[in-house]
Specification:
heterodimer; A: alpha/beta; Quinone Oxidoreductase, Chain A, domain 1; Rossmann fold; 2 domains; 6-stranded parallel sheet; 9 helices; B: mainly beta; 0% helix
Chain lengths: 271, 37
């Protein structure tokens, strides 16, 4: 540990995800708004990440790791998990509200589990029939096949969604869902993409709908709360584990969306 | 200095390569983590 680290002791199990900590220098940080830090540190970009047997990381990005979680299952919770969990629990949706999760991949397969355990009426939306059984297994109460049906119309039939959490990077598919929101409903974007979405002003004005983006930042109330909630609620990511030597394969399966549903590198020599 | 295994991409577009690197030392406000997964 560095000489100025406090609040942690040597030997403690910790987790660090892509979020490496706030810069503590920008205007937002100085205002105490760490969530909107303008130049937060990113693991693997600002400093070397976990493709190695050891790494160093700023103490602000650390999350205490519950004993109940094994590392390969905790790892995706510190990225996809914290993003989707905090997006949902900060969304304003209350128990029983209709919440739709678009996409059933690395983010979506966790979002469906979180949504159900948070007490929402949980709808999963994906393309085709392949993932229908999985959606129900993860806790969805309704599955909508966006390939053979108009997903927005199906959501309307169910009363309209209070929240649609868009987890699959497909701007066209996401744009098409906006009419499936109930009045004051919100479309929340968590998947990174550059392609513009097409949403007309009248779609927002009718029903006062809104669109927002969400990213999870500070470690204590994002990562640690996600880990704790996952232990309490039995949320388990589906992972494919690779040794460090196969990092290239693990990476390729991730970027081509062929992994079910998260690539995790496991160091050998660690039980 | 003791060494560790790491995978790196040395330049944009380069292949992944398994290398031996020095185990990093934490700076004042950093910790060193033994990576499990």
């Amino acid at each position: 540990m560095g000489s100025k680290v406090s609040g942690w002791e040597i030997g403690r199990r910790v987790g660090v995800g892509w979020y490496g900590g706030p810069c503590l220098k920008c205007d937002a940080c100085k205002r105490g708004d760490l969530s909107n830090c303008e130049s937060f540190l990113t693991t693997g970009i600002s400093f070397d990440g976990g493709y190695a047997e050891y790494m160093t990381t700023p103490m602000q990005g650390l999350a205490a790791m519950p004993d109940e979680l094994v590392a390969v299952e905790a790892a995706p919770l510190l990225c996809a998990g914290r993003t989707t969990f905090t997006a949902l629990r900060n969304s304003g949706a209350q128990g029983g509200d209709l919440v739709a999760i678009q996409g059933l991949g690395g983010l979506g397969h966790l979002a469906v589990q979180f949504a159900r355990k948070l007490g929402y009426r949980t709808i999963a939306i994906s393309r085709g029939k392949d993932k229908e059984a999985l959606a129900y297994q993860l806790g969805a109460q309704t599955y909508i096949d966006a390939e053979s049906t108009d997903a927005a119309a199906e959501l309307k039939k169910l009363g309209g969604a209070r929240i649609i959490l868009a987890t699959a990077p497909n701007s066209k598919a996401i744009s098409g869902l906006i009419n499936g929101l109930c009045p004051d409903g919100q479309l929340i974007i968590v998947a990174w993409q550059n392609e513009p979405m097409q949403i007309s002003p009248w779609q927002l004005l009718g029903g006062r709908r809104s669109v927002k983006g969400w990213t999870a930042r500070p470690a204590r109330n994002s990562s640690e709360d996600t880990l704790k909630f996952s232990v309490i609620s039995g949320i388990v990511p589906m992972v494919e584990v690779f040794p460090l030597e196969q990092a290239a394969l693990a990476f390729e399966k991730m970027v081509s969306s062929k992994v079910h549903f998260k690539s995790v590198l496991k160091m050998d020599g660690n039980a | 200095m003791p060494l560790m295994k790491a995978v790196q991409v040395a330049s944009p577009g380069a292949e992944f390569e398994l290398v031996q690197k020095e185990i990093p030392e934490p700076r004042e406000t950093e910790v060193r983590i033994k990576v499990d997964a």
